[in-house]
Amino acid sequence: MKNIQKVSNQDALFPFSFIYKDKKSPQRELSNHVHDYYEIVYVYSGKGTFFIGDEFYHMQQGEVFLIPNNTIHRAMPDKDNPVTSTIIFFSPTLLYNNLVDEFFSYVHLFEETKKFNHYQISLPSDAQLKMEKQLFAIHQERMHAEPGFKHACLMMMHQIILDLYRIRIKTKENNKVYHSDWIIDILAYINSHLDESLSLTELANKSLVSTSHFSRVFKQKVGIGLIEYLNTKRVIKAKELLISTSYTVSQIAEICGFESVSHFHRIFKKYLNMTPASYRKIQK
User: Fold this and answer.
1) CA 156 from centre of chain
2) pLDDT value of position 26
3) pLDDT band at residue 130 using 50, 70 and 90 as cut-offs
4) What b/e string do you get for 252-278 counting C-beta neighbours within 10 Å, with b at 16 or more?
5) 27: helix, strand or coil
6) What are phi and psi of 245, to 5 degrees?
7) How far apart are CA 255 and CA 238, in angstroms?
8) DSSP assignment of 197-230, as one string?
9) Closest Cα to residue 226, out of 216, 238, 236?
10) What is d(CA 76, CA 264) in angstroms, rounded to the nearest whole number?
11) 78 near 47, Cβ under 8 Å?
């Protein structure tokens, strides 16, 4: 199974996908994955858990989840009360980047979300009604597809992002779901020590649990096994370094904790179907 995915969209000039009022179930949900798009998820009803970055969150009515690109995530809807949600996928290239003032940019919401590792916004009742009307309007525009409907969808999406940015400024969220204290601690430890070997034995000892208990609980809570999680996190970090630095491939392999350059090539190609050098070339 490949965890790093691209959102399918036939229109290269309008990289935007919209899934309206979709009922989730554990059987239909993707396992842990990442993609190059931004994602906004609004929950109408139901319950579940959302694992994003290194955190667990409640999924319930009125919650919005912001998922920046290259962020590992997985929704886990309740099997008895599944979540109904609308999802917007879009490329960061669709966000207006003209800075008309020095305090706000449409990318700020996602940049700050990733920087502070805080992916959830709880909407008050009036904001829920407004959000639902905006999402319905986007749905209608796409259904009727009248001239200019793509521009209309884009304008409404920008308004949603602006509204969410203002709500985040006004409110402080504290709705994280900590399933197991040691899981949260170990995810934070992994994130700050990716350049190290991080063996199962070492992490289990640090968590003060047996290796078998660690493996079972880790996979149950995070959704994938330790090795797959480490590989995914390391590939995400490698992608960022390949784009943003001039480090050599061997330097990046070492920084990201791969056993060797050949191991780095093998894992990177497994997830992205290309070598690190090829990925860097097409991003230039």
Assistant:
1) 22
2) 58
3) very high
4) bbebbbbeebeebbebbeebbeeebee
5) coil
6) -130, 170
7) 8
8) ---HHHHHHHHTS-HHHHHHHHHHHHSS-HHHHH
9) 216
10) 30
11) yes
Q: For tokens 């259904």, name the residue.
A: 143
- Convert the pLDDT of each residue in 225-253 to its tens digit: 899 889 988 998 899 899 889 999 999 99
- Please, what is the angle between helix 181-192 and helix 226-244, to 10°? 40
Is 4-170's fold the same as 181-283's? no
- pLDDT tens per residue, range 95-110: 876 655 556 788 888 9
Quote the DSSP letter at residue 33. B
* Domain range 181-283, its CATH number among 3.30.70.2740, 1.10.10.60, 1.10.510.10, 3.30.559.10: 1.10.10.60
CB 84 within 8 A of CB 46: yes
Q: Specify the long-range contacts of residues 165-170, CB closer than 8 Å, at least 24 apart.
A: 165/104, 165/108, 165/109, 167/121, 167/123, 167/124, 167/127, 168/109, 168/112, 168/121
Give CATH for domain 4-170: 2.60.120.280
Instruction: Domain ranges for the chain, please list them.
Output: 4-170, 181-283
Strands 48-52 and 55-59, how do they pair?
antiparallel
- Count the Cβ atoms, other than its own, within 10 Å of residue 186: 23
How far apart are the C-alpha atoms of 284 and 279, rounded to whole Å? 9
